[in-house]
Inverse folding.
């Protein structure tokens, strides 16, 4: 996929292909209505100013700080960053599965026009979770209940969804079983009719993740939150699973919020990318823009620090210092203590996302029109 | 698992042989002349001689051991010196009462304890959780026979609500139940405390796990998650403990039977000890021990059924 | 906005956890990883250090502190019984039988007019003697056999010792103790012996399991390579490093021993009257349950007090010795 000696950059072709596929799928769904206008009315997801804290004893950790972005239908939005930057928290916040110690201070999460933060738990269950918005998690090993068969777990979910969508419907148990088998088949699991009666420990990690994808993705899913979905898998399986996610998402017209620290994967599958650091968004733009011309020193450093064949024999760049603790963030730009190019203003004020080019924003005070060459880290 | 089960069962046999040897040695090591001790003040030289003959007490140790083992193998546990009845029949008469008490106590405690613990885990701030802690403290602090005495003091003497002695008239269910309530409570309260605390801790652990998070992400209703998905995982350690608890219950049952004058294996053994009726003591202890061993064996094996992973390992 | 109440304890994201935990924890080198200096290792400093660290941690945990206080009270009663108790526990005042609590007799009198409070204090002495005596014997015996068994894993000696353990463990504990006392005759010493015999396999099993893992450690292998005698290795290297779970077990075991002594005495198969043991007081109280509630109430409370004391202390001990729980 990535040729030798070629620096990491986005593959615009994959993005285009997906967009075409999505258009075709949506056309199928809505018939011949002018879907362009319809969907252009509002983005699928609009997050504005989302700010939330974790309360650990006396400490308050700001996990998300004024996070704002939007997602369109059918696009794959990658969220990148080091561990602890808040990318997992973002996914959990959208589907509202945060632990009790998390308190949302400000912000809205508009999904198809409605603010999810204002919905009650009951409403979330009835309309959103598992139906419109699904989430798959990092470690498939533990994501399935070990004492129940796959069949029971999948049919329970399907039954619950059926009950929410059509209360009072009386479908037989077999109906759900068949539906579950079809889901398994669509994710590429061989001989689903037999395997559905197995227990999770009889599946490999990759297969378990396929089961999760089968449960999460269906024709009605508008948004899939993938939280490091393939991080815990072998590299070869990783590629298969990612391909599966992309193809199913394209088929169903699902948008994907793909959270990962692996820039390589994101370069291949994401349309747009968000770079996060210590709870703030540092850069957002199309994959091509961010990878080819990173506007923020941090993004440039991240890309620079990836090992590549060009840098063979040379020292790997590592960004000096460590990620700050979320309860003791530096003043001003949270990256300034580690930034080679930091200036006085970086210490005093918090940079807001500024326009770099069409659809490309970056939160840095310094002249953002500088290309990648400028941010050469030593 | 099959291999493990077979090995586990086979190991029981040498253990039982050791048990028999020890049991036998107890009588052999008793200071003084066994026969006169058994007969007590009724001992005349003729009676002593006759008893010695009957019990083969004049032979040397290996021979006596031989007679003993042969007798066991034939199912003959000897005859009670006191009453003349066969030890086997005495035990057979007493055992069902003990079993009934054990089952009711442990079963009730398990039922109440597990649900209490589950509640306590789900609603950690509610008074139920406080109840769980309180009951578990009581269970720790008050051993079963002390609890039995206190219960008797409170509910038979100070506030005469329950009958104090006996097991109730045969065939009269209500009467039997009335006679069961206090003893079962005395035995069970320690268990309720322990099991509820164990279940609660286990539930809290399970509720934090990834698969519960998955279930929530897919909108499974709260009650289903708690009482079906989480509970089945959470009770695995509890069931193990219950299996092992049967043995401890036998010990507690001894006291409860004495205090409430209930017929049962425990009372039989202790009364026989007072009366120096050693065949009954031996036979009773043997049966109690066999039950204990059997219960442990069952607990080990049945663990495999609760936890499907073990089945295929 | 209604929050799901039991999302409370859900796992916090790993990132937050990472920032919460201490990056450097000098106490984290758990005991079994510590490689003591082989050539110059002496038992005394090792034990002294550990005891100091442990006690400090125990006291930090509030439950442990309360438990320690309670136990100290019990020890005080046991040792200074003659000076603390207002009356001679065996002094009978027939005119004062079955009296309830009053200014002279704080807990009332029993069926022979003896002061219950004094008998409780002396009973504390019996309880403490039995608990410490039985636990010391059974733990020393059990650990010794367990370590030997573990060190000789797989050999006949090991199987023999395991067989011994399993036989004794097959008996329901109280019944075995009962039988032993029945054979030997009731007395304080016999009770201690009987209880010790029923309990040693538990220590043995723990010791053996710990030995199995410790004996693979490098310092043991080094000692063997240097030609140290097996007995020396066992005493110097293995035993100190397996003591953690054993010590935790000790705490709870003492409580259990007190209960059984009371139980055996209650059945008349324990300490002989007129010695004041809580079990005997319960026995008498049982006989006169219709007449006086006080004869049962006070010993029952005393036993509960002892139980709570040792439970709290051993919980504290467990929390202190578990490396994961430290530094909270």
């Amino acid at each position: 996929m990535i040729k030798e000696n070629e620096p990491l950059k986005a593959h615009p072709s994959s993005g285009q292909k997906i967009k075409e596929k999505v258009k075709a799928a949506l056309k199928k769904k809505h018939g011949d209505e002018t879907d362009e206008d319809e969907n252009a009315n509002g983005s699928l997801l609009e997050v504005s100013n989302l700010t939330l804290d974790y309360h650990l004893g006396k400490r308050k950790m700001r996990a998300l700080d004024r996070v704002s972005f939007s997602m369109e239908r059918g696009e794959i939005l990658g969220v990148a960053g080091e561990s602890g930057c808040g990318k997992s928290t973002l996914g959990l916040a959208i589907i509202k599965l945060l632990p009790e110690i998390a308190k949302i201070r400000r912000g809205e999460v508009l999904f198809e026009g409605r603010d999810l933060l204002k919905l009650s738990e009951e409403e979330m269950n009835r309309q959103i979770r598992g139906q419109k918005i699904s989430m798959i998690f990092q470690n498939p090993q533990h994501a399935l209940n070990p004492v129940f068969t796959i069949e029971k777990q999948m049919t329970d979910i399907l039954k619950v969804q059926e009950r929410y969508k059509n209360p009072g419907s009386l479908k037989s148990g077999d109906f759900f079983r068949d539906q579950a088998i079809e889901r398994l088949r669509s994710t590429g699991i061989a001989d689903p009719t037999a395997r559905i009666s197995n227990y999770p420990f009889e599946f490999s990690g990759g297969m378990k993740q396929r089961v999760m994808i089968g449960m999460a993705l269906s024709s009605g899913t508008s948004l899939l939150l993938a939280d490091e979905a393939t991080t815990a898998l072998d590299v070869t399986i990783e590629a298969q699973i990612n391909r599966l996610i992309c193809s199913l998402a394209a088929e169903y017209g699902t948008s994907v919020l793909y959270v990962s620290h692996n820039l390589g994967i994101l370069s291949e599958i994401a349309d747009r990318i968000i770079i996060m650091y210590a709870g703030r968004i540092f850069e957002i733009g199309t994959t091509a823009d961010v990878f080819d011309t990173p506007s923020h020193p941090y993004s440039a450093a991240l890309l620079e620090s990836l090992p590549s064949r060009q840098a063979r024999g040379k020292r790997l760049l590592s960004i000096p210092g460590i990620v700050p603790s979320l309860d003791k963030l530096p003043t001003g730009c949270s990256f300034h203590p580690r930034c080679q190019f930091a200036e006085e203003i970086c210490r005093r004020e918090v940079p807001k996302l500024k326009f770099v080019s069409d659809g490309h924003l970056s939160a840095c005070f310094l002249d953002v029109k500088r290309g990648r060459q400028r941010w050469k880290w030593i | 698992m099959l291999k493990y089960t077979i090995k586990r069962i086979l190991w029981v046999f040498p253990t039982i042989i050791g048990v028999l040897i020890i049991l036998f040695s107890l009588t052999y090591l008793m200071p003084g002349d066994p026969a006169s001790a058994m007969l007590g003040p009724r001992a005349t030289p003729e009676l002593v001689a006759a008893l010695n003959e009957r019990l083969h007490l004049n032979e040397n140790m290996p021979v006596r051991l031989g007679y003993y083992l042969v007798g066991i193998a034939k199912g003959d546990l000897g005859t009670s010196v006191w009453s003349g009845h066969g030890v086997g029949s005495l035990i057979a008469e007493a055992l069902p009462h003990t079993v009934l008490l054990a089952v009711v106590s442990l079963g009730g405690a398990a039922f109440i304890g597990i649900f209490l613990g589950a509640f306590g885990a789900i609603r950690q701030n509610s008074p139920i959780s406080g109840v769980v802690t309180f009951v578990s403290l009581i269970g720790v602090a008050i051993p079963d026979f002390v609890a039995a005495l206190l219960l008797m003091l409170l509910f038979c003497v100070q506030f005469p609500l329950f009958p104090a002695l006996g097991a109730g008239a045969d065939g009269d269910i209500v009467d039997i139940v009335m006679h069961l309530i206090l003893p079962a409570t005395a035995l069970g309260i320690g268990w309720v405390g322990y099991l509820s605390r164990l279940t609660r801790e286990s539930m809290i652990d399970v509720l934090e796990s990834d698969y519960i998070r998955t279930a929530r992400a897919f909108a499974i209703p709260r009650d289903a998650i708690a009482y079906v998905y989480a509970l089945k995982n959470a009770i695995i350690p509890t069931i193990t403990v219950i299996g092992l608890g049967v043995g401890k219950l036998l010990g507690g049952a001894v006291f409860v039977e004495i205090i409430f004058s209930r017929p049962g294996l425990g009372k039989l053994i202790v009364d026989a000890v007072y009366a120096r009726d050693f065949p009954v003591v031996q036979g009773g202890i043997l049966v109690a021990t066999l039950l204990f061993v059997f219960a442990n064996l069952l607990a080990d094996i049945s663990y495999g059924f609760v936890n499907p992973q073990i089945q295929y390992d | 906005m209604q929050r799901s109440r039991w999302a409370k304890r859900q796992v916090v994201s790993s990132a937050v956890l990472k920032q919460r935990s201490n990056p450097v924890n000098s106490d984290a080198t758990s005991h079994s990883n510590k490689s003591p200096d082989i050539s110059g290792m002496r038992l005394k400093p090792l034990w002294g250090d550990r005891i100091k660290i442990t006690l400090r941690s125990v006291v930090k945990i509030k439950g442990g502190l309360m438990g320690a206080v309670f136990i100290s009270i019990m020890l005080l009663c046991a040792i200074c019984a003659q000076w603390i108790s207002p009356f001679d526990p065996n002094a009978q005042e027939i005119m004062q039988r079955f009296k309830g609590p009053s200014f002279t007799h704080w807990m009332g009198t029993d069926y022979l007019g003896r002061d219950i409070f004094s008998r409780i204090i002396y009973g504390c002495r019996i309880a403490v003697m039995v608990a410490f005596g039985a636990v010391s014997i059974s733990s020393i015996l059990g650990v010794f056999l367990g370590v030997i068994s573990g060190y000789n894993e797989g050999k006949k000696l090991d199987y023999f010792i395991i067989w011994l353990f399993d036989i004794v463990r097959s008996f329901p504990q109280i019944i075995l103790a009962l039988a032993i006392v029945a054979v030997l005759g009731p007395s304080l010493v016999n009770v201690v012996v009987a209880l010790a015999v029923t309990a040693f396999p538990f220590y043995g099993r723990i010791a053996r399991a710990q030995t199995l893992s410790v004996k693979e450690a490098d310092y043991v292998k080094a000692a063997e390579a240097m030609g140290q005698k097996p007995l020396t290795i066992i005493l110097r290297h293995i035993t100190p490093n397996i003591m953690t779970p054993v010590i935790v077990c000790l705490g709870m075991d003492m409580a259990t021993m007190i209960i059984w002594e009371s139980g055996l005495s209650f059945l008349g198969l324990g300490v002989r009257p007129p010695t004041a043991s809580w079990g005997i007081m319960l026995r008498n109280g049982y006989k006169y349950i219709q007449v006086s509630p006080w004869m049962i109430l006070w010993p029952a409370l005393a036993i509960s007090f002892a139980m709570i004391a040792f439970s709290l202390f051993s919980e504290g001990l467990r929390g202190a010795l578990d490396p994961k729980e430290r530094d909270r």
The first strand of chain A starts at residue 45 and ends at 56. Chain A touches chain B at residues 95, 97, 124-126, 128-131, 134-135, 137, 139, 142-148, 156-157, 160-161, 164, 199, 201-202, 212, 215-216 (CB under 8 Å). DSSP finds 14 helices and twelve strands in chain A.
